[in-house]
Specification:
This protein is α/β, with parallel strands linked by helices. The chain folds into two domains: 6-158 and 347-367, Rossmann fold (3-Layer(aba) Sandwich), CATH 3.40.50; 162-343 and 374-408, 2-Layer Sandwich (Dihydrodipicolinate Reductase, domain 2). It has 13 helices and 15 strands. The chain has a nine-stranded mixed beta sheet with strand order 14-13-12-11-7-10-9-8-15. A six-stranded parallel beta sheet has the order 3-2-1-4-5-6, sandwiched between helices. Strand 11 (310-315) and strand 12 (318-323) form a beta hairpin. Helix 6 (135-148) runs antiparallel to helix 12 and helix 10 crosses helix 12. The longest helix has 20 residues, at 368-387. It starts with 5 loop residues before the first helix and ends in a 15-residue tail after the last helix. The structure holds nicotinamide-adenine-dinucleotide. Nicotinamide-adenine-dinucleotide binds at residues 39-45, 64-67, 70, 90, 105-108, 110, 128-129, 155, 157, 209-210, 212, 225-226, 241.
Amino acid sequence: MKTVTRREFVRDSGIVLMTAGAFQGAWAQPSERVRHAVIGLGGQGRRHAKVFGSFPDCELVAICDVDPKRRAKALEEIPKADTVKQYEDYRKVLNDTSIDTVSIATPDHWHTPIAIAAMKAGKHVYVEKPCCHNVHEGRVLLEAAKKYGKCVQHGTQGRSGEGIQIAVDYLRAGNLGSVRMAKAINHQLRQAIGRAEESEPPEGVNYDMWLGPAPIHRFTLNRWHYNWHWFWDYGCGDLGNDGIHQVDEARWGLGVGMPKAVSASGGQLFYDDDHETPDTQVVTFEFEKCYLLYEMRLWTDYPMEGHDNGVVFYGDKGTVHLGRKGSEVELIGEERKLIGSGADIQAHIRNFLDCVKANTPEKLKAPASEAVISATLCHLGNIATRVSRKLHFDAETWTCGDDQEANALLKRAYRTGYELLEV
Ligand SMILES: NC(=O)c1ccc[n+]([C@@H]2O[C@H](COP(=O)([O-])OP(=O)(O)OC[C@H]3O[C@@H](n4cnc5c(N)ncnc54)[C@H](O)[C@@H]3O)[C@@H](O)[C@H]2O)c1
């Protein structure tokens, strides 16, 4: 008997794919292609477009951005661009029933709203880090991933790094003795952004859609491409930007989930410009049997610690170091040795596509269940910095007990017309 593939079924019956759930994962032949769209076309979205489109069993069929210049730039870089549809409004991407998967590489404040809408439209989702802009969104995202049963891969590609997996196995096997502390280090030289005047948005841009759930604010070049990272309305500072990679890997290596307490301090010792978020930050996450420290300096260059951004695990027998060049072990009295290579976005996207095709969300390397915890740590670190006191986090209620000021920062107000969809 001939197996009717999902695509043949849809083509022959003419039904729309809102019923996709029943057929998801029915890619009968390994060679059958996943149809992918990228939403948000800055540096990272264009990287997605290239990598997704490079796999023989994945076809980049659509791109979406509120900025026509960004769409044009992406199309210039895409092979066979004439076959790729372009959209300004992500809802049209989600309504396109021929699309199986989307990646979300917009600013952070759009990650969860689009991810939830995408799952509701039957799509699998590759969402950039941090997967949520606040703790409440993370909780809802997790609920949606469970309810809709879709693959949700988080852009913490370190989880697919072979060397990091080797280091985690090394730690788990007890080779370092008891590991009671890990340090997640994010130090790099980031340029100041100066002060930008209010102005009209560039012509053709849908700035209202760019703002989305965030409050209306007049356009400035700093509250725009890339620099939005440094404003709380859209970004999460560098803790939620680069720091989340190190926090996620440190948490993975320690084998811990939500923290019981978080204390932090941070501010601007370096920038004197439009930045709202800190350039210097120290956060301590407390767990039952260990501590995770986060240390951030945005005014020192990479080589300072002998490795670039990374993680150090401290055990009674020595240390394990994770960095971009790979994973290293230094046992007390012995030379430091390399045990594995660094992270790789190619492998992470491959893992996502494999899980989509086999309909095995449980085999994702960075599923929503891990993503939301790591993002929550970053949000709590920022909240503790902003309220300047220790937070006691209750993982049952997802609140900071009776600390009302901190609890208010666990969620945001959504602008009318851009509310989070109900799950
Ligand atoms: N995993 C990684 O290592 C990694 C590396 C870089 C960036 N990122 C993440 O990727 C995301 C994008 O970063 P970037 O540096 O490319 O930012 P960017 O500001 O350069 O690009 C974001 C793009 O999204 C578009 N956009 C905004 N709202 C939109 C909407 N509603 N619909 C469609 N398009 C919309 C913007 O116009 C812009 O072109 C961030 O969340 C960042 O944290 C991840």
